[in-house]
Amino acid sequence: MSVKQKDNEFIAATYGRFPLVITEGKGSLLKDEDGKEYIDLGTGIAVNTFGAADGEWINAVTAQLNKIQHTSNLYYTKPDTELAEMLCTRTGMKKVFFSNSGAEANECAIKVARKYAAEKKGAEYNTIITLKNSFHGRTVTTLAATGQEIFHKDFLPLTEGFVYAEANNTADLKQKVSENKVAAIMFEPVQGEGGVMPLTKEFVSAIAEIAENQDILMIADEVQTGNGRTGKLYGYMNYDILPDIVSTAKGLGGGLPIGATLLGEKVKDVLTAGSHGSTFGGNPVCCAGALNILSRIDDTLLAEVREKSEYIVSELSTAKGVKSVTGMGLMLGIETEKGANEVIDYCRENGVLVIKAKTKVRLLPALNIPWEQLKTAIQILKEACE
Ligand SMILES: *Cc1c(COP(=O)(O)O)cnc(C)c1O
Predict the structure, then answer these.
(1) Ligand 1 within 6 A of CB of 135
(2) Ligand 1 geometric centre to CA of 194 (Å)
(3) Cis peptide bond N-terminal to 365, omega within 30
(4) What does the pLDDT look like over 321-376, one tens digit per residue?
(5) Could you tell me which of 73, 146, 251, 336 has the fewest CB atoms within 10 Å of its CB?
(6) Going from the N-terminus, what domains does the chain have, and what CATH number goes with each?
């Protein structure tokens, strides 16, 4: 049986896969089973921050693997404490809970928000306002947080207490806040799966003001926007705000599964012994890898991310067949005159891997993609859009 046949037979059919078996890679170049090479502008959905099989990251991961791979949270370990310290130092958050995915990082954020509000304002203050077109994960609770009905269908009833406000509509947000007993407002600085749509500065300022005035927690879902993706270390840093809770995952581990929920001053002591946990959370191998990734996302790299972003936007926004370019940093959505699938297929046939968000072509290249490869890939993408 071919890989594709075996996958069809033995793997649950939850994914619409591209007709491609990836076998290996180095940096932003990937190879398929026939040895054909591709420039990768998708990084496994914003996960492989420094591309495939990055040498420094491999060294950090294998050094830890050679010591011990897992201890459980019954014992202290060094990599998770160092990673937590670095996350706090670089964000102003105060404590971290580690898990294994974006959905879990958001579950923790939601639990913390509900517990804080219940203790401070009363158990009836349990509503979490999220945004229409948001994406927060696939567990029953993070599906409830996700403001897109299409994902809810077939899985009702979901966790109660989520209300959806329209993104970038302050009046609607204020109305939803006034109609409910609200624990938190949760948002992605740039909606990723929803079509790579950044929130406006005005709207995020309005969230911050409402949050501050009414002791409502501000939760930034930075699962996709975090870890340098938007040209700042975390997406919220583009907006001059400090959330109470930041969840992140995808790019933090550089390719190994890790989720982190960062807790600010107000909520740093909400979680107490026994109130939350995760067997794999804070895994030393994942944390050693993440420590390497995070320590390399410095000002020089972030400036390069912004420079590459400007290059892509300037090339594509005036290109034939391109209707619009949205997003921030190296998280960009291209609205094309042709269908996105047609553009994606042309790119793949010509050695460039791009992905989709709603009806848009989505670009999430490695933060250190070499200029030459980026330029080649963008020229092919331009051809594809023509
Ligand atoms: C991908 C994503 C998630 C879910 O992350 P998983 O690791 O797949 O659970 C949650 N929120 C946002 C914004 C995401 O992009």
Answers:
(1) yes
(2) 12
(3) no
(4) 999 999 999 999 999 999 999 999 999 999 999 999 999 999 999 999 999 999 99
(5) 73
(6) 3-54+299-385 (3.90.1150.10), 57-296 (3.40.640.10)
Tokens 């995760």 correspond to what residue? 278
137 lines ligand 1 (CB under 6 A): yes
Whole-number Å distance between alpha carbons of 137 and 109: 12
Instruction: Give every CB contact of residue 313 below 8 A, 6+ residues apart in sequence.
Output: 325, 332
From CA 99, how far away is CA 272, in angstroms rounded? 16
What integer pLDDT is reported at residue 190 of this predicted model? 98
Distance CA 14, CA 206 (A): 38
pTM of the model: 0.98
Long-range contacts of residues 312-317, Cβ cutoff 8 Å, at least 24 apart? 312/363, 312/374, 312/378, 315/378, 315/382, 316/378, 316/381, 316/382, 316/385
- Please provide the distance, in angstroms rounded to a whole number, between the alpha carbons at the two ends of the chain: 38
pLDDT in tens, 223-244: 999 999 999 999 999 999 999 9
Q: What is the DSSP letter of 25?
A: E
SS3 331: strand
